[in-house]
Design brief:
Layout (H helix, E strand, L loop, with lengths): L5 E5 L3 H12 L3 E5 L5 H7 L3 E2 L3 H4 L5 E4 L4 H9 L13 E5 L4 H12 L6 E9 L9 E7 L1 H14 L2 E6 L4 H29 L4 H8 L7 H11 L5 H20 L5 H16 L8 H9 L3 H6 L5 H10 L6 E5 L3 H12 L3 E5 L3 H9 L3 E2 L3 H5 L4 E4 L4 H9 L13 E4 L5 H12 L6 E4 L2 E2 L2 H6 L2 E5 L3 H14 E6 L6 H29 L4 H8 L7 H12 L8 H18 L4 H18 L8 H8 L10 E2 H7 L9 H11 L3 E5 L11 E4 L4 H9 L4 E5 L7 H21 L6 E5 L10 H10 L4 E5 L7 E4 L2 E6 L2 E4 L18 H8 L10 E3 L1 H18 L4 E5 L4 H16 L4 E5 L1 H7 L23 E4 L4 H13 L4 E6 L1 H5 L3 H20 L3 E6 L9 H21 L7 E4 L1 H11 L4 E9 L2 E6 L9 E5 L8 H9 L8 H11 L3 E5 ...
Parallel strand pairs: 1-2, 1-4, 2-3, 4-5, 5-6, 7-8, 9-10, 9-12, 10-11, 12-13, 13-14, 16-17, 19-21, 19-22, 20-21, 22-29, 23-28, 23-29, 27-28, 30-32, 30-33, 31-32, 33-36, 37-38, 37-46, 38-39, 39-40, 40-41, 41-44, 44-45, 45-46
Antiparallel strand pairs: 6-7, 15-16, 18-26, 20-34, 24-25, 25-26, 34-35, 35-36, 42-43
Helix pairs in contact: 6-28, 7-9, 7-10, 7-11, 7-22, 10-11, 11-12, 11-26, 22-24, 22-25, 22-26, 22-27, 25-26, 29-35, 30-31, 31-32, 34-35, 35-36, 37-42, 39-40, 40-41, 44-45, 44-52, 47-48, 48-49, 51-52
Length: 1376
């Protein structure tokens, strides 16, 4: 589309110029009209066309971008003099790049519909991203009707680097602008309040700025506006803009009847500042705020500053040794801190009022005391980490308090969040004890996870002596240690300022998100927009996901901010600093606590707004229409990179080692080896083969997290050792995981990095086309028929062991890492970059990533995946190292696999087999249950189903478990021997444990039982199908004892097929690894049906076609009874030969339908191709009946009729037989001799006429022609046969051109050499009767004691004759 498409522009500004440039880079044309703009020249330089009129600018455009700020201007352009509307195509898309209100857009749309049938209007709002990830990139918000958005998407994607779509009503851009301005206004006033409070608390404002801009209280406004404020660079003009914008928002809120208390007070504060400037428009803003807050900001900002971080380094460098630490307060944070001190080899004695926590601490190696006093005896340092001042007072000075027992010279580290005033007072009280107590004020920030890792941020203050004495403890607990000058209380002062901002940012996020919801905006998309804008904050990005998910599991309780903002309010009053925003935020948290939400997560403050307004912030990602979404994406990168990938891989020479957490990861590759062991010897052997790729089956998804980590470390160590032994080879590791995001992430990645070293980036890529897994706009989707369902809303996200909530992969990374990796820090490769920039752009992006970063890959096609793979290899060639956590599609793309056709039984030469196939189902996902139900429904007549009780295997006694295993294995063995495809399935009720580890233990018990059952099976299955990742892994490695296998290909898209190695219990048996989450409801049934023993492996026509190709003939042997049938089939199986069971009319007359049924059953049960043929049908009535009895082919014998009658008779039967897919043989000429009770005298016999044969074949449409060339039924005369081989040669030349096969009746008694000559001249079917009957009759002359012995003797006699004929005809060994 882009190569021939032009977009027009009315008006240009800096952002729209960027939009035009992006379009030009994407292959679109661009032309613009602007009455007066210096940007037009720049537009032309970039390849755009300058137009002299609106009409010229709209000529032949597919879309028109209008940049006008007022509705009247837009109307003038479209409808005024020289109307541009006349020049527009009917299907043009009109983009309104403006902030006009939705009502004006609706009026315009209505007006346009009066001029044309269909109108496509999309309003857009473009801005530059301001987050660390999106900084400077063009972001775009687009809204409009569904048809308009669908039509506009390719152009929208080409114009920007990040697109946010609000499908439905217009005006999303102006609404979002209001929400972002609301947050920016509140953040601005809160920043000024924070700086003012910090100054009054005695902390240098630049110190406050340096610490807070790297802490939880940070926001884009704080980080970017505060330096301007402190530098005296901001003027009153900024206030004017804020006052006007916030006033407009409050007007909108009033019209919506929506309360905005934080915004209202921020607006009033801004008005106060504006008023205090006394009309001086150039007044410095710093002076304005000094008037408002009564704080000398200028003097504080110009005071001498220092580096708190350097002070921290100095203090810890001059520390004293600490031998014993007391620790009071083992809550969530305290427990993590105390246990980390234990791991840092400190002796720690702990105390907490909650006894179970004390027991847990003791189990972890800590000492415990029964009171604060007992904990404090003989300690060098006492750490107090309790909730509030009252608790601190109690543990220090209450009954059996710590102060009374502390030894002289001890130091106290107070890490609780308390007021600076309390800390100052406490220091004085400790000095009055006259025991040389030292106090360090050391509040912490960072969360529970970082506490347990010793990576907290600590803001410490106190005397130099106190800081040096406690240095080892502070250093062990912190990643960043800030030492704040100003004495005890200064650290709490900084923490107080941080909490002021953090609390306001949470409360303002709640106000903004509920307001956005009231305006009708999708809250998830709104969140995504804001976190890329200047309205974002650390708390917004961290807490809003809780609001949107409606998940208030307490990570930090709401009551904590009741306390912390209470401290702010008291200090505000004490220090005479008016903190309007912080005070209102405090009231909001108080209201939440009063409503009973105090113990919920602090994000639950949003419930205040939700309860008052009946608006819900919770927002699920929408389910999308797959067809529309995929069509709306930019056109794929035009060049197929596969050849380049193969070439680059040769240059790279780094093999790809795929650690597969279950066997299903092989579902996109072929001709690749899988190892199920990873000792150094095996890995050395594999590396020496110099493979492009190989898999190691870890099956780690079935393990606990700890065991999985140990396993990955072990494998990586062995890989490193083996690589060094083989020319020090380099390799790239891929952690292949589930495409629905289940598995041990980040534990396995952490384990790999701990051995392999830090990577430049972790690559997260769960795209998997065959399974319907797409990643679009950073959201991972699972296809369900024609819908794309966000992964977090599928049954896979509810997995008992690996469940998750987030569908957005950035948020998923944060969720799975427990916040260690923030969503905002996760990089992303967009589909736009893949499709418009190609491999080079991917390489450039990857090379620009910060070392140790995480990057997710969007993809919606295999071409996308190949483009990424080519770019990644380029980056590797430049020295970059990556650790990949991906689904299966990445692997095939990365090594340049070219897909091949699905594998069928015939491809492996196992069309037939004596035993049935074995299907084992262990997976419990709902998709598997549906597939099993469909399998049982569709294959009920051929499938034996055996259900195992999970309750007995996992929950009952050992005896009951063993009994269930014995019962099942015996039934399966019997069923397989009976040639039945056999399904072993676990009962479908899902039994889970109370914890993920308990659920994994139940899974292990079930899986181990399946292993034992399969191990006990003695029959060799024709094939084995294992359903579910854990099941397929355990069966391969434990039940079948496979150490390596070859991936042959796929049995179905996304379903890999292995051939087991020679060391396995069933070498060469096809092993189908069927993932639990792949395919539709029919998928399992489709595979089983395609691998089932066919009722007829070949038709008679196929047998003759193969004979023609192979230059041999197939024997058709007349049968009369069970012994004859068994003799022919047994001979065929021993000789590996095809054969035809042939019934003569006289035999049918005696044996009837039971004889036919025996033949058909024998053909179905045989392990070589056998068909059933009706011979010499010379009665139309008889043949009409025969056609309904199940024969594969018939002979229409009209040889006794005149030629024309023979043609008519044969043709009529041929038409009927072909309608039933039956082959038709006919005879032209007539054989002499006797067959059964039919005799033809010599004078009635006649040769086949060549000319008549030509006409006969054309007229009748037969498939095979029985020729008369001197052959006879029965015995040949004493002087031997006299065959016209010259005539046979001519007949073959004629018939082969017409696709008709030659048949020779009367093969009994023909010499071997003559038989061979006939085969050379085209005979493909020999009828054999007399010699077989003779063998049967002669066997009866030998007396036997019993009828069974008579049957055995007769069968063996006939079998010898049949086998000899098969070898003579050349069909032996040609069964497949």
């Amino acid at each position: 589309m882009a190569s021939n498409s032009v977009v027009g522009f009315f008006g240009l500004d800096e952002v729209s110029l960027e939009l035009a440039a992006s379009l030009l880079r994407s292959g679109y044309g661009a032309q613009a009209f602007e009455a007066c703009s210096p940007l037009l020249d720049e537009f032309a330089k970039q390849g755009g066309i300058k137009c002299v009129s609106p009409i010229e600018a709209v000529k032949d455009v597919v879309a028109l971008v209008i940049l006008k700020s007022h509705p009247d201007q837009i109307n003038d352009l479209l409808f005024g003099h020289g109307s541009a509307l006349k020049g527009l195509r009917k299907d043009v898309v009109i983009f309104l790049h403006s902030s006009i209100l939705p009502v004006h857009i609706q009026k315009l749309e209505k007006l346009l519909t009066e001029y044309r049938e269909r109108v496509f209007i999309v309003d857009i709002y473009a801005f530059r991203g301001m987050s660390e990830v999106s900084n400077g990139k063009i972001m775009m918000i687009a809204s409009g009707g569904g048809d308009s958005i669908t039509r506009a998407r390719p152009i929208l994607s080409a114009m920007c680097e990040k697109l946010f779509v609000f499908e439905g009503e217009h005006g999303a851009g102006s609404k979002i602008k209001m929400v972002t301005e609301l947050l920016e206004g509140i953040h601005f006033v809160a920043s000024v309040e924070a700086i003012s409070l910090g100054i009054q608390a005695g902390v240098h404002p630049w110190i406050v700025y340096d610490i807070i801009s790297n802490a939880a209280g940070n926001s884009w406004v704080f980080k970017n506006h505060v330096p301007q404020l402190l530098g005296g660079n901001q003027t009153k003009h900024l206030l004017n803009a804020f006052v006007q914008n916030l006033g407009n928002i409050l007007d909108m809120a009033r019209s919506c009847m929506f309360p905005l208390p934080l915004l209202a007070v921020a607006h009033q504060q801004l008005i106060a500042g504006f008023s205090d400037s006394h009309g001086n428009d150039d007044a410095k803003l710093i002076k304005v705020w000094e008037e408002v807050y009564g704080v000398n900001i200028t003097a504080a900002a110009n005071a001498e500053t220092y580096s708190p971080e350097k002070l921290g380094d100095q203090m810890t460098a001059e520390t004293n040794s600490v031998s014993r630490i007391g620790f009071i307060g083992l809550g969530a944070m305290g427990f993590g801190m105390a246990t980390h001190l234990l791991r840092s080899n400190f002796c720690v004695i702990g105390y907490d009022v909650y006894k179970p926590t004390l027991a847990q601490f003791a189990n972890g190696g800590g000492l415990i005391g029964s009171s604060p006093a007992e904990v404090s005896k003989d300690v060098d340092v006492l750490v107090v980490m309790v909730t509030n001042e009252a608790q601190a007072e109690s543990v220090l000075y209450g009954d059996r308090g710590a102060v009374s027992a502390l030894p002289s010279g001890a130091s106290i580290v107070l890490s609780s969040t308390v007021s600076p005033a309390y800390v100052s007072q406490l220091e004085r009280r400790l000095q009055n004890e006259h025991k040389d107590f030292k106090l360090v004020d050391a509040p912490v920030s960072g969360g529970v996870k970082r506490a347990s890792m010793g990576k907290l941020t600590i803001m410490a203050s106190g005397t130099d002596q106190a800081l040096k004495h406690t240095g080892p403890v502070l250093s062990a607990l912190s990643e960043k240690l800030y030492v704040i000058r100003g004495g005890c209380g200064a650290g709490s002062g900084v923490k107080m300022v941080n909490q002021l901002l953090a609390g306001v940012h949470i409360a303002s996020a709640a106000e903004a998100m509920t307001f956005g919801a009231r305006l009708g905006l999708n809250t998830r998309t709104l969140f995504d927009v804001i976190r890329n804008s200047g309205a974002t904050s650390w708390m917004f990005e961290n807490r809003v996901p809780h609001m949107v998910d409606n998940d208030y599991t307490p990570l930090s309780a709401l009551d904590i901010f009741v306390k912390d903002l209470g401290i702010v309010s008291r200090e505000s009053s004490h220090r005479k600093v008016p903190l309007h925003i912080a005070t209102v935020a405090h009231q909001l948290f108080l209201s939440g606590s009063a409503a009973g939400w105090g113990r919920l997560d602090d994000a639950a403050v949003v419930k205040f707004y939700e309860t008052l307004t009946s608006v819900k912030v919770e927002g699920k990602l929408p389910v999308l229409k797959k067809e529309f979404v995929l069509k709306s994406l930019p056109t794929e990168w035009p060049l197929n990179p596969t050849d380049d990938i193969m070439r680059l891989n040769q240059s790279n020479s780094k093999p790809l080692v795929v650690l597969d957490d279950d066997p299903t990861g092989t579902q996109t590759v072929h001709d690749i080896e899988v190892l199920t062991e990873w000792n150094i010897e095996s890995l050395v052997e594999q590396f020496r083969k110099k493979p492009t790729c190989f898999f190691i089956l870890t099956n780690s998804r079935s393990l606990s997290s700890d065991k999985a980590s140990v396993l990955i470390e072990d494998i990586c160590r062995n890989l490193c050792t083996a690589a060094k032994l083989v020319e020090n080879i380099e390799f790239t590791v891929v952690l292949r995981g589930d495409s629905t995001l289940r598995g041990h992430f980040p534990e396995e990645a952490d384990a790999a990095v701990s051995v392999l070293g830090e990577m430049d980036s972790w690559i997260i890529c769960p795209f998997f086309l065959q399974g319907g897994r797409f990643t679009i706009e950073d959201v991972h989707y699972v296809a369900d028929s024609e819908r794309l369902v966000p992964a977090g809303d599928t049954e896979f996200a509810k997995d008992a062991a690996f469940g998750y909530k987030s569908s957005n992969l950035r948020e998923w990374v944060e969720e799975k890492t427990g916040g260690r990796i923030q969503a905002s820090s996760v990089a992303s490769i967009s589909i736009q970059l893949l499709r418009q920039g190609g491999p080079n752009a991917v390489c450039e992006h990857l090379c620009s990533l910060q070392k140790g970063s995480t990057c997710i890959v969007n993809a919606a096609s295999d071409r996308d995946m190949s483009v990424f793979a080519a770019g990644m290899i380029q980056a590797e060639l430049k020295g970059k190292r990556f650790l990949c956590r991906t689904a299966a599609s990445f692997v095939s793309a990365r090594i340049g696999i070219i897909p091949k056709a699905l594998i069928l039984p015939k491809d492996l030469g196992i069309n037939k087999g004596r035993s049935g196939g074995l299907i084992v189902v262990g997976s419990y996902v709902p998709k598997t249950t549906k597939q099993v139900e469909e399998l049982k429904s569709q294959c009920s007549h051929t499938l034996r189903s055996i259900e195992i009780s999970v309750d007995k295997l996992a929950m009952k006694s050992i005896e009951q478990r063993q009994e269930e295993i014995n019962r099942t294995s015996e039934m399966v063995d019997a069923s397989l021997r009976a040639q039945k495809d056999t399904l072993i399935m676990t009962s479908r009720e899902l039994i889970t444990g109370k914890t993920p580890s308990e659920s994994l233990e139940i899974n292990f018990k079930v899986s181990s039982a399946l292993v034992e059952i399969v191990r006990r099976i003695t029959s060799r299955p024709r094939y084995i199908l294992a359903k579910g990742g854990i099941t397929s892994s355990d069966l391969a490695t434990k039940a079948l004892e496979a150490k390596r296998a070859k991936i042959v290909g796929q049995a179905l898209a996304g379903v890999p097929l292995w051939q087991l190695g020679p060391e396995s219990r069933h070498p060469g048996v096809p092993y189908i690894v069927f993932p639990g989450n792949v395919g539709d409801s029919n998928a399992l049934a489709d595979v089983v049906k395609s691998w089932a023993r066919p009722l007829r492996y070949s038709s008679t026509k196929e047998l003759l076609l193969n004979a023609e190709k192979g230059g041999y003939a197939v024997g058709a042997f007349n049968v009369y009874n069970l012994e004859g049938i068994d003799a022919i089939v047994s001979a065929a199986e021993e000789e590996r030969s095809p054969a035809i069971l042939q019934i003569h009319p006289s035999a049918l007359k005696q044996g009837g339908i039971p004889l036919i049924a025996c033949c058909i059953s024998a053909a179905e049960q045989a392990c070589v191709p056998i068909t059933v043929h009706f011979d010499h049908g010379n009665s139309k009535q008889e043949l009409m009946e025969v056609l309904e009895l199940g024969f594969d082919s018939v002979m229409v014998d009209g040889s006794h009729l005149p030629f024309k009658d023979n043609v008519s008779y044969t043709k009529s039967i041929s038409l009927l037989a072909h309608s039933k897919n039956m082959m038709v043989e006919a005879e032209l000429g007539r054989l002499s001799g006797t067959e059964d009770d039919l005799t033809v005298e010599d004078y009635e016999a006649r040769m086949t006429d060549l000319d008549q044969a030509d006409e006969f074949i054309d007229e009748t449409g037969i498939d095979a022609l029985a020729v008369c060339i001197g052959n006879v039924h029965g015995k040949y005369p004493a002087n031997g046969p006299n065959l016209r081989l010259d005539l046979l040669k001519d007949l073959y030349a004629l018939s082969s051109k017409k696709g008709v096969y030659l048949v020779l009746h009367g093969a009994s008694g023909l010499p071997r050499e003559l038989i061979k000559k006939c085969i050379v001249r085209g005979v493909r079917k020999f009828n054999v009767n007399t010699e077989v009957r003779k063998a049967y009759m002669e066997s009866l002359s030998s007396p036997q004691k019993d009828l069974v012995q008579v049957m055995v003797s007769a069968k063996e006699a006939m079998k010898q004759v049949v086998a000899e004929k098969m070898r003579l005809f050349g069909s032996a060994g040609k069964a497949f």
